[in-house]
Amino acid sequence: DRVVVQPGVSIGHSDASSGAGVTLALGRVIVQDGAEIGANASVARGTIHDTIIGEAARVGALARIPSDVLIGRHCLVYSIVGPRQAETIMDHSVCGLQDEKRWPPRKEIEA
């Protein structure tokens, strides 16, 4: 319910990042309630386990989510950095935020 998938998103394709040619994909892609996937993002189907995007998670535009990744609840994944294959991102995490783009800026936090 309440899942937002922006235009150009690819969900459920076989991940060929292993370089071994044809990859058999036995897993699924599970997108939980309230998740949002940005425009032109790519979410690969799991090869052994499922690829899961947790409840209320946000995946940025042009992000690449490889196979067997678990993104926890209320996570934010920017397109700058994507997880590696079979990686787990714990609940309430932010991935890919560069220090100079941090909000509020570090100077204001230390003041």
Explain this structure.
By secondary structure, this protein is mainly β. Helix content is 5%, strand content 26%. The strands form 3 sheets. A 5-stranded parallel beta sheet has the order 1-4-7-10-12, with no helix packed on it. It has a 4-stranded parallel beta sheet with strand order 3-6-9-11, with no helix packed on it. It is globular.
Instruction: Give the helices and strands as they follow along the chain.
Output: EEEEEEEEEEEEH
The rounded distance between the terminal residues' Cα atoms is 42 Å
Helical content stands at under 10%
Strand percent estimate: 25-35%
How would you state the average pLDDT, rounded? 84
Most strands sheet:
5 strands, parallel
Question: Can you count the beta strands?
Answer: 12
Shape: globular
Q: Reading side by side through the largest sheet, how are the strands ordered? A: 1-4-7-10-12
Per DSSP, the total helix count is 1
What can be said about this structure in brief?
By secondary structure, the protein is mostly beta strands.
Draw up the topology in text.
Elements: E1 4-5, E2 10-13, E3 29-31, E4 36-37, E5 42-44, E6 51-53, E7 58-59, E8 64-65, E9 70-71, E10 76-77, E11 88-89, E12 94-95, H1 106-110
Parallel strand pairs: 1-4, 2-5, 3-6, 4-7, 5-8, 6-9, 7-10, 9-11, 10-12
What are the key terms here?
five-stranded parallel sheet, 111 residues, 26% strand, four-stranded parallel sheet, single chain, mainly beta
